Structure prediction request, 382 residues.
Amino acid sequence: MKRIDSSSLATTALLALLAAALPTDAVAHILKGESIGFFSGFEHPISGLDHVIAMVAVGLWGAQLGMPAIWVLPVTFPLVMACGGFLGLIGVPLPGSEIAIALSGVCLGAAVLLELRPPLWMAGILVGIFGLFHGYAHGSELPPGQNALLYSLGFVLATGLLHATGIAIGLIHRWQWGQLALRGAGAFVLCGGMFFLWGALS
Amino acid sequence: MATGMGPVFDGISHFGLSPEDFLPVIAVGFFAGLRGPAHSRMSLGAVTLSWFAGGLAAMAGFALPDLALSSLTAALFMLIGILLAANIGLPTALCAFLGASLGLVRGMADLSGVEESVAHTLSLLGMTASVFAVFAIAASLTIPLKRLWIIVAARVGGSWIAALGLLLVGWIVRYGAFTR
Prediction:
């Protein structure tokens, strides 16, 4: 891999920082009474930018890491996310979930920005831990809906599609400019995560 | 599900519009297909016949309670999903047993509370034909090609099915039986 020019990296990071400053409020969310059916479930993961950036980042990181991480991470995430959803559903308290969700953006963004290459098991554990908190946020708000399966199907599918989006974008990693752009995207995710973390802590 | 086209089509449309029915059938089809033609043939017969038998048993009044059917459905989602996601090798007989369990539970769930009649039996027949067709198509997608992306897609799909199963368990713990 050729070295990436540091000034180009700084410019990309600056642009990403400016773009991340555009949102006006933290949308790490636990909404109430919104969800019945497939579309409500589908809407939930894509209705909060904190969820979106983290899940896309999982796909981006997987694409950077290549085989087998490109599919192991997206397989791990929904499974552990469902564990979190289960805990949320049965009412197990999991304090600090909003902070953890924001932190997932920070950590995954940093991993993509720095193109970190930890062992696969370590990447899986990291993604799994964050998946747990994302799932908890979904599960804790599942109401007594008319169709449990459709709601669950909606949000699992939306999560998977966000990962697929990240992987599809990550395919540009094969080109030099693509590697740079991916790192820029990582910087964007990192800044977004920091923004949401600030919101969650304040 | 009344299509206005007769009970056979009612059964077909019921199956096609019930994700709790067609999702695990597709998943078992993928799983059996990944294991090979022998697994697929045995499982195809097992899931189809047991679906019909489960439906007949339910119409005869031998259906399990809703909570048990919901719990078994959720457990089967998890089991099938994990087996598919991990691409675990399973003997042919066990694979067929898995298909038979799915068919029995879902056939029973679909026809529970329904009185025995020619129309309902024809509806069950349409449903069973759909099970046969969908399973055969799913298995045939994974048997001959063995391309990496198909295997990966099937395994990712398996993880989603397992996730659904776990969420359904949580749902049952919190709210009781979910809608059939």
